[in-house]
Structures are given as structure tokens and as C-alpha cells.
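Late entry, evening session. Most of the bench is empty. Finally got around to the prediction I had been postponing all week. Sequence below, unchanged from the version circulated by S.P.
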Amino acid sequence: MDTAVSKDSSVYYSGSYWNDFPLVLEYMCKNFTGDKKKWWMNDFQERFCPSPFEHGLFLNCGNGWVERTFIDLKIVTRASAFDYSFDLLQEARRERGDRKINYLQADVNRIDFDSEQFDLIVNVAALHHVQYINRFCVILCKALKETGLFVNYDYIGPHRNQYSKKHWGYIKEINHSLPNSIRKEPLIKPHLPTMLQVDPTEAIHSELILETVKRYFDIFERHDTGGGIAYEVLTHNQNLQGIPSKELDPYIDWLLDMDRKYTEEKRVPPLFSYFIARPKKEVLENEELMETYQVSEMVRERKAHTRRGTYSNRDYLIMLNNSLDNWWAHSKLNRIFHK
């Protein structure tokens, strides 16, 4: 079967996101590290890097900013990194300078590595783009040295941002409570057919990340932040551009308070997590369990292949209805133009 890959790199590094706002960044830092001024990378460097890791692997590296940062912070001495996008890899190579970074163009769903090859693996928003996530976690477990670490910062929310009806209702309610000048208008729930068209990898199995990583890694530290309310309201909100921070910050503060409240009350799930793990090499020796996981993944993907890339009955119905709507519109146009 074909694998889900993004063939247009222009969808990345564009638009405005919730963590572009300083107050949001402080909110995330506080949740991740306990210090509103300390980002998770600096936290990891301080607590786990008395000396640099020798060789790090960076997943779906994009334009290379993560591995450059890790080398500059002296977290790692040399890096290997891969991405599917030729354009982004070209940019990464241009910006590499004299840093020891080796780049490879590859599909994350097909890539493989030698055993015990790395002593650090870094995932920054990469796993939520992986279709064959079980297969990939097996490979990462094999490739990481027994004493190595797997550090992650990723979106762990609903797959393809398909929020439940109740969750989306909370987002709409909070957004509507804001003044017209601040409110996100239009507030549009992520449209599944459009997402599949623009980038079929986006959050393809985000809700499976923690579950799958735990099969092959011991997550010994995890720090979630919210986002279940504030992320959608602030991200790509054109009304916020140009508003002075003195005027805007009180509303962002209130929005983050609501985000914290709704997350703590479990009315909405956390959308982002910073977690650190060690490999569970013994699981790789359990052939029966490994086969069970892999067969389950292949069945899931074969089924999705026949259902227009969807993984639930609800999503499949959305795609079918979209096709029927398109057919109806196309038929109506044909009747108009062929009278």
C-alpha cells in the first residue's frame, strides 16, 4: 500500500500559532517544567546532560531547527536527521553551518536503522505524522542504546483534530465569550476531507502516541500542558494581529485560565505533552506480542485504505457525505450547463 506522506512542504512553518504569544509560552513552560521562563529543551539539558550525548537521531526534522538547537545547547555532539521533504532538507543543509549533522531523505513509514545506533532520540512534533506508528516505535526501540533516552514534545490530542461534539461546544462557548474584536471569526471546526487533501499525515494517529510508545519504552517522566480550549481560539486568529499586548494580554490570561480549568476538570483532553522515556529492550524478544501488535496495525491500515484513509465509522461517514455533496453539486452544474 502507499504510505501517508505530505507532498507539499508549504503547509509547514506558516500561519500564527497559540505559542507565538508570550503568555501562552509561559503557560506551557510552567506546565512542562514548573518554571514559566524555562522551556522543556533547557529543562532537559540541565537535568539530563552533564555531558553531551554522542549521537542523536532527530525525527521528521523539517528545516533542521531542532537539531541545530540541540547541538548549540551542547545536548548532543553530532546528529542524524531525516525528512520526506526535499525542499525542507535543502534549507536544513544550508543552515547547518559547521555542525556535525547528517541528513537523509526518507519516508518515516519505511525508514530503518541499525541496532544500538543512537544514545539519544528526539521527537519534536514528529510522531503525530507517522502512519505505521507501531512499526516505527519498534525501530526506534532497536536503534536506541539500552542506556539511551527518548525525549518527546508532541501533539497528543484527537486524531486529525476531530474534536468531539461536546469538546467543540466548549471551544465555541469560550470563543463567543470574548469581545468581537478578540473573538476568532470564523471559528471553523477542522474539516476532515480538507485535512486529508492538504496533508494526510496531520495528526493521523496522535491519540495513539502515548499508548504505542509505552509498548516499547518506559515513560518515566511526563508533563502535559492544556490547549484543549486556547489552542483553537488563538491559532490562526487573524483578529489578534496588531492588537497591543497591553490590551490583549488580559483576555489571553482569562482564556488560559479557562483552558487550565477545563483541562483539570477533564472536560477537554490535554493537547500537548513533554515526556522522556527509556527503551524496553525485553519487549523486542517477545515474538508473539510483537506479531500481535504488527498484525493489528496492518489490519487497521488495510481497512483505512478501503475507507478513504479514515479510521472510524464517524470519519468514514464524513468522507462519504462529502463525496455525496460533491456529486450532488457536480450533477446540478451539469444539468444547468447542458440544458
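Two things to note before I forget:
Residues 9-306 form a domain with the Rossmann fold fold (CATH 3.40.50.150).
The beta strands are 53-58, 76-83, 101-105, 118-124, 144-155, 217-225, 272-279.
Will write this up properly tomorrow.
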